[in-house]
């Protein structure tokens, strides 16, 4: 777990060494992009610059480029521009990666496993969806029940991503066949 400074707990010397290794083995753009890809709540260019080990002007320059190519999204909050990862771009990259790295057969087998897992959730909790389960849980619900809600949601998301990867691969193959 991190500390208030955003630094992970651990040996300060090891942390400094890891930061220096990261800085020497990557470009400023790569570091800004890596920080943005981990950013789920909007951050200012200054906050991203600090995490990416770059100056604020350098961060702004690279963030502008990342917004232009769709890796990042920019919003105005309280008079400040804040940046966050573009979830659609990450989703597309994940779908494309699955379609490229796995065979249709592997994806179908994975989809079948996920459907069985979802069916087990439905049967075990007598619920039609993770949202249905969540709304039925009381304040005294076990940690396991809440973990099941989260795992069920993740499984459903992964199921849809795997199905999209099959469709993406098929569309890509059909496009190549018509050229």
Automatic annotation (TrEMBL):
Coiled coil segments of this chain: none
Entry-linked Pfam families: DUF7342
Location of the region described as Disordered in the Swiss-Prot/TrEMBL record: 1-26, 37-56
Cross-referenced InterPro entries: ArsR-like_HTH, DUF7342, WH-like_DNA-bd_sf, WH_DNA-bd_sf
Record's protein name: Winged helix-turn-helix domain-containing protein
Lineage: Archaea, Methanobacteriati, Methanobacteriota, Stenosarchaea group, Halobacteria
